[in-house]
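TASK: fixed-backbone design
INPUT:
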């Protein structure tokens, strides 16, 4: 019996270590070369409380997504994490984004049967194989290639559990027939195997779109999900055209390949990817020194760009950060060090109080907010009422030189930045008078300052949390992966 126990323990420890440190699929952790960009736009979804105490929203991101899909002629590649209507029954005021997006894709495929349309998504939308959602079935029946990401190719973000799951349960797969457990995400019943896979806590967390637009290629990178119950969330996006879009497309080929669909997205040698014709008028009026540049970032490449922006900031520079989850220790230490050397920081955090009708305990943002506040960093909280401040946003405005904006899918956590999830962000470097930079600054200033009687945010004292118990709880959860952030 001692030998059996010893062998079982060694197998578990070995599998947990392998899942935590196994080689990454080729093409992850990208920091592409910055490329000239055209038609760059910053987009946002914003929710606030008006003077009459009513929650109100302005939305732009999925309006633009739907517009881009409706005009595409050759290619649509969409990669979205949450793509479902789970939780829509919580509030009759939710926008039916998942249905609108499904209908837009099917409509365009019907109008242009020759178009290549690919939808990549995370298996959470089928509760890891325990459900067969009608909208994904409808997309397939319309001739759209729906790719479910193979998360087993990723490193384990919760190796304590993944070591067990890989040995005991992974080989059994899953089925959408015969579930007997309630589905906490929505209607129907699911199998025990759905819940066992859920505990791995890793994801394809990307939110991207690539389409042809005339002779151009246009990309959109966002923090927003086509998820009905997320429709009131604050979110941000960057839309751009030019060579960086082909880098974005390459990054989606990586996901298709690791998920067993290597030929789903046409190769870069396909005639449809011929170089677009530059606009002579635009080139004549824009010098290389002032032309905006976009850099594609994925996984740890996002972490490296964020750290470079913060650690490279100098006294008098201004850094504005708005993020749903802030827990990554290197970034937190970099924020504190930047404050100490005279950089002007403003950090806007979600209070981590709501998750689709479930009340949360404020971890990790409230303990981290206390740590930053103690170090002198100005911190404010989003004034949420059921929705979330879901943005992932950093704007760097140095005293001299161009501004830098980083937006996308990645929260500032170990899971999102250390090659555990699949993530995509875009880094824009441009002069301050570029409309996208001005719009990004105006977005943050609104969120921070509550202009015109709109209530976007609250002072630090509203959710101050000096509890050392919750602080060390956050630190343990962040270090081990036993968390959902």
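OUTPUT:
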């Amino acid at each position: 019996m001692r030998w059996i126990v010893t062998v079982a323990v060694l197998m578990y420890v070995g599998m947990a270590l392998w899942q935590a440190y196994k080689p990454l699929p080729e093409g992850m952790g990208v920091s592409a070369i910055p490329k000239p960009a055209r038609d760059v736009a910053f987009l946002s979804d914003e929710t606030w409380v008006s003077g009459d105490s009513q929650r109100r929203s302005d939305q732009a991101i999925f309006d633009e997504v739907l517009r881009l899909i409706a005009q595409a002629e050759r290619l649509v590649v969409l990669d979205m994490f949450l793509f479902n209507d789970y939780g829509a029954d919580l509030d009759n005021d939710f926008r039916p984004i998942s249905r609108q997006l499904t209908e837009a894709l099917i409509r365009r495929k019907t109008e242009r049967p020759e178009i290549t349309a690919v939808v990549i998504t995370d298996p959470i939308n089928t509760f890891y194989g325990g459900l067969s959602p009608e909208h994904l079935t409808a997309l397939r029946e319309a001739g759209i290639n729906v790719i479910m990401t193979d998360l087993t190719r990723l490193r384990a973000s919760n190796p304590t559990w993944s070591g067990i799951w890989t040995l005991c349960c992974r080989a059994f797969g899953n089925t959408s027939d015969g579930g007997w457990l309630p589905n906490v995400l929505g209607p129907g019943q699911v199998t025990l195997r759905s819940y066992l896979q859920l505990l791995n806590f890793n994801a394809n967390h990307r939110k991207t779109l690539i389409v042809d637009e005339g002779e151009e290629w246009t990309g959109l990178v966002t923090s927003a999900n086509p998820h009905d119950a997320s429709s009131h969330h604050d979110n941000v996006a960057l839309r751009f055209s030019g060579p960086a879009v082909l880098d974005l497309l390459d990054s989606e080929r990586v996901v298709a390949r690791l998920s067993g669909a290597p030929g789903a997205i046409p190769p870069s040698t396909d005639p449809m990817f011929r170089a677009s014709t530059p606009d002579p008028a635009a080139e004549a009026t824009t010098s290389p020194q002032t032309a905006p540049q976009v850099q594609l970032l994925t996984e740890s490449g996002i972490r490296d760009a964020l750290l470079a922006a913060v650690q490279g900031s100098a006294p008098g520079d201004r850094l504005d950060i708005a993020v749903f989850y802030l827990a990554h220790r290197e970034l937190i230490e970099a924020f504190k060090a930047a404050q100490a050397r005279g950089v002007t920081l403003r950090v806007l955090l979600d209070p981590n109080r709501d998750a689709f009708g479930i009340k949360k305990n404020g971890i990790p943002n409230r303990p981290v907010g206390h740590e930053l506040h103690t170090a002198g960093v100005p911190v404010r909280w989003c004034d949420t009422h059921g929705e979330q401040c879901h943005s992932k946003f950093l704007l760097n405005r140095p005293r001299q030189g161009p501004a830098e904006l980083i937006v996308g899918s990645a929260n500032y956590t170990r899971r999102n930045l250390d090659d555990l999830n699949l993530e995509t962000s875009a880094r824009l470097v441009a002069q301050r008078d570029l409309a996208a930079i001005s719009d990004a600054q105006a977005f943050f200033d609104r969120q921070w300052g509550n202009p015109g009687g709109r209530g976007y945010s609250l002072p630090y004292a509203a959710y101050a949390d000096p509890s050392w118990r919750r602080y060390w709880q956050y630190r343990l959860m962040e270090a081990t992966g036993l968390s959902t952030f």
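COMMENT: The first strand starts at residue 35 and ends at 36.
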